[in-house]
Amino acid sequence: MRRRRISDNKHHSFSLAFEQEQKPSNGERGRCEIHIVEAMSASVYIESSVVSYLTSRPSRDTVIAGRQAITVAWWQGARSRYEVFVSILVMEEISAGNPEAVARRLSAVAEISSLGISREAYVLADALLSTKAVPQNSQRDALHIAIAATQGMDFLLTWNFRHINNAETRRLIAKTTSAHGFVCPVLCSPEELGGIDDDE
User: 20 to 30 Å CA-CA from 128: which of 27, 89, 94, 200?
Assistant: First the structure.
């Protein structure tokens, strides 16, 4: 389990590994080598809306079509840079609806690890609702944030700008999460994560 509390500083871009060689028997000076080792890939929680945009049929709506294209580009070009996860909640949400659409969504995430929902996640979700960081009628959105935070995710990827990736509520979401001892993941869309180029 990848829980990341505030005091946890394990997520860095690089870590240093030191190796002290034994002093050679011939009296020559030994070497102290410093190796720069790339740390664990950043973790990304894939929220249900991303899977929906990824697998839905092309839309005539220009905004939706744009998001679909960006999502596909991120999935094909940037996803491999990260350690990606879904959750039991995501699996439940993408399993509802038209059978053909469900099959496409489930196929897209078939090889992605699914996170469980801990008691801490439920407690944090309730706090996000009670502080009005997330609207009372958006319990599932609060739970997505709580799962990602309590499981130590670095990013929460979503197209939900209303209740999750909302500029007006991000600060309160982070404050509430911090008050419960966890670090809030960066809330962002596929367009904001991974440096997708226009040519991709």
Answer: 94
Domains: count for the chain: 1
Residues 6+ apart with CB under 8 A from 72: 54
Question: Contact at 8 Å (CB) between 2 and 12?
Answer: no
List, as one string, the DSSP characters of 59-117.
Answer: PSSHHHHHHHHHHHHHHHHTGGGSEEEEEHHHHHHHTSS-HHHHHHHHHHTTTSEEE--
- Among 114, 126, 139, smallest CA distance to 180 is for 126
Contact 167, 23 (CB under 8 A): no
Instruction: Output the pTM of the full model.
Output: 0.79
Which residue range is the domain that position 58 belongs to?
43-188
Amino acid identity of 38? Answer: E
pLDDT in tens, 142-174: 999 999 999 999 999 999 999 999 999 999 999
Length of the chain: 200
Q: Which helix (H) or strand (E) holds 177?
A: helix 170-179
The answer to whether 124 touches 149, Cβ cutoff 8 Å, is yes
Q: What is the CATH number for 127?
A: 3.40.50.1010
Confidence of residue 35 (pLDDT cuts 50, 70, 90): very low
